[in-house]
Amino acid sequence: MHELGITQSIVEIALRTAAGQQAKKIHSVTLEVGSLAGVVAEALEFCYEACSQDSLLEGSVLIIEEIQARARCRDCAAEYPLTDLLACCPVCNSAASDLVCGEEMRIKEMEID
Amino acid sequence: MCIDCGCGPSGHDHQHKETEAPRKTISVEEDILSKNNRLAAGNRALFARQGIFTLNLVSSPGSGKTSLLEKTLVDLKNEINFAVLEGDQQTTNDADRIAATGTPAHQINTGAGCHLDAHMVGHGLEHFDLETIQMMMIENVGNLVCPASFDLGEDFKVTLLSVTEGEDKPLKYPPLFRDSEIMLIN
Ligand SMILES: Nc1nc2c(ncn2[C@@H]2O[C@H](COP(=O)(O)OP(=O)(O)O)[C@@H](O)[C@H]2O)c(=O)[nH]1
Ligand SMILES: [Mg+2]
Ligand SMILES: [Zn+2]
Q1: Residue B95: domain span
Q2: What is the pLDDT of residues B9-49, one digit of tens each?
Q3: pLDDT at position A100 over 60
Q4: Which residue's CA is minimally distant from atom 28 of ligand 1?
Q5: Residue B11 located in a structural domain
Q6: In a structure prediction context, what are the per-residue pLDDT tens digits for chain B, which is 186 residues long?
Q7: Spatial distance between the Cα atoms of B180 and A9, rounded to a whole number of angstroms
Q8: Quick one: closest CA in B to A97, which residue?
Q9: Is ipTM > 0.90 here?
Q10: Which residues contact B93 (CB under 8 A, 6 or more apart)?
Q11: Among B67, B73, B163, which residue has the most ligand 1 atoms within 8 Å of its CB, making it the best to mutate?
Q12: Which of A12, A61, A73, B50 is the most buried (most CB within 10 A)?
């Protein structure tokens, strides 16, 4: 359950960004989370509500956009969506691949006044 | 361009209602783990400067990380200068076991924490004379899930799997296995 620590980072970045913009209110914070980032959206939402209390973030909405992981085959260079972590290349059936994306966890944007 | 709503440069062809608070969307594009990643990069640079090769050992509790370290240290201590950072929620049992082999060891207790992070490791390193160390072994908190997301600044992540855990564990907990450069079956 490291979602709490991750949420504290989200709150820290969001409040710092809002202060830099002299925001009076934060309506929403949008995250981009890779399907392999290893966080549970429900747990993030739960922690967010708790961590945003008594701050400019209170009452704001956390929007989580999932980024589907993609892999590139080391043998034939085909790129394919990685729905199953141990999936093989759909072109040549090789199991050797490198991750193209899917582990990211970032704040994309915020809606503020 | 309207700074309130971000509409295009082609003139303002709509009104913002007086009563409606002006909302604007600002792009942030900041990595949520950026603090950990920045500290991990600092650790990595420190290891490189001191010529220290570093492994991050991860596994379920009880797979044999400390036992493997004890054996390795006893077998190789005349060839390589080791140091060991131990991570557990509580107790100094593992650091005591390592110290008994004659290797410098420091215990990090994470309390409620389920993994080591780069910040804890950075402070853990303050307990060693890095000049004299060639290889740093970091034993992470026993957990097959959370340590996957936290770079500590290591050269390689090593996942241990003991056979009694069941052969399907890489299927059940794939991220950590996928993230590791080395996997050992104990
Ligand atoms: N049978 C057997 N037991 C082992 C082996 N390696 C470790 N153990 C035992 O497994 C238990 C947990 O080992 P430990 O090294 O503390 O695991 P850690 O929690 O991953 O550090 C201890 O009682 C060890 O003596 C092994 O290769 N074979
Ligand atoms: Mg141990
Ligand atoms: Zn292929």
Answers
A1: 35-185
A2: 444 555 555 455 678 999 999 999 888 888 999 999 999 99
A3: yes
A4: B186
A5: no
A6: 334 434 444 445 555 554 556 789 999 999 998 888 889 999 999 999 999 999 999 999 999 999 999 999 999 999 999 999 999 999 999 999 999 999 999 999 999 888 999 999 999 999 999 999 999 999 999 999 889 889 999 999 999 999 999 999 998 888 899 889 999 999
A7: 25
A8: B178
A9: no
A10: none
A11: B67
A12: A73
- Is B31 within 8 Å of A113 when comparing Cβ atoms? no
Amino acid making up residue B106: H
Q: What is the count of structural domains for chain B?
A: 1
Instruction: Give B85's strand partners.
Output: B106, B138
User: Is B13 contained in some domain?
Assistant: no
- CATH code where residue B94 lies: 3.40.50.300
Query: In the prediction, which pLDDT does B8 show?
Result: 46
SS3 A13: helix
How many other CB atoms are found less than 10 A from the CB of residue B126? 8
Model pTM score: 0.78
Q: What is the CATH number of domain A3-68+102-112?
A: 3.30.2320.50
Strand B82-88: give its sheet, edge to edge: B105-109, B82-88, B135-139, B53-58, B156-161, B182-185
